[in-house]
Each structure stands twice: as C-alpha cells, then as structure tokens.
Amino acid sequence: MKIALFPGSFDPITIGHFDILERAKLLFDKIYIGIGKNSTKQCMFSLEERLQFLHTCFKGDEKIVITQYDGLTVNYCLEIDAHFILRGLRSDTDFEYEKNIAQINKEMVPSVETVFMVCNPAYSAVSSTIVKDIKRNGGDISRYIPKPLSRIL
Ligand code: ADP
Prior knowledge:
Layout: E1 3-8, H1 15-24, E2 30-36, H2 47-57, E3 64-69, H3 73-80, E4 84-89, H4 92-108, E5 113-118, H5 128-136
Parallel strand pairs: 1-2, 1-4, 2-3, 4-5
Adenosine-5'-diphosphate is lined by residues 8-10, 14, 16-17, 20, 39, 41, 87-88, 90, 94, 119, 123, 126-128.
C-alpha cells in the first residue's frame, strides 16, 4: 500500500493544495494531510478551524486521512508508515526551499522519499498568505479556496 503524507499549515487550505491532492490521489492509496503543530508560522486560523476546513473539503473521501502531528515530519512518516512526503512546487523559490528540506529529510530517514508535484499554472500565484490578506481586507476569497469551503469561510 502506497501511503503519502502531505504536510503543511493549511492556514487555510487553498485551491492550489486541493488540486495537488486530487492529482496525487492517482499515485497513492492513502494520503494523510498532516498539520504540523511545531511550525513557527503565525496562523490566522486555530488548529481546530484548519482541521475543520480540511474535513469539510474531504468528507467521505476514503483515500484521505486528516491528522495533526508534533515533531519532525520524517518521524511522523515512520509512525504512520508513509514512505512518501508530498509537496507542491509553485516557483524557483519553492523549489530551492523544498530541495534543502527534502535532502535533509532523506539524510535523516533514507526510506522516506519526497515527491514533488508541479502546480497547475492557474494556481501558481495562490497562497494561504494571499488568501488571508484578501480576507482580512474584506475581499472575496471564494475562487481561491475549495468549493465546499465557501459556505463556512
Ligand atoms: P508550509 O507551512 O509547510 O509551507 P503550506 O500549507 O503553505 O505549508 O503548503 C503546503 C504545501 O502545499 C507545500 O508543498 C506548498 O508548496 C504547497 N502549495 C501551497 N500553495 C500551493 C499552490 N497554489 N499550488 C500548489 N502547491 C501549493
């Protein structure tokens, strides 16, 4: 069984994350969407809210498991028996950042492979940061978040 972990802050989940997940479902039997609790990022939404957003997006989807974890991502992979870490790439900047993390993760736990998926060009400018900025300033975020979320976000 091919199990992947898609780690992130998902503050909130965007159409970009959602697209990566839908495409990755063709590659993996199970994908854990894991909210890392040790991130130093200042979040707009609480952990509970972010989990609720994910549950709303993937209700009834048997391939998706929504979780949270503490500590190193690679250690969590060992815990859930995931041999793959899934990440999305939007730009050179994403790649440079992700490459370093992937190489260090590989050094720490060689049995876990990082798999990158190049983002859909329609979503390469979409980020949780921009979605939050628009929301804070009273704009319409509905086109940047998965459809099931527009009722609650
Ligand atoms: P982190 O806090 O780890 O950066 P994010 O929630 O911001 O987590 O992102 C999780 C993953 O989703 C990362 O691999 C990121 O590159 C990817 N991602 C973010 N936005 C997009 C997008 N618009 N298209 C494709 N992938 C994306």
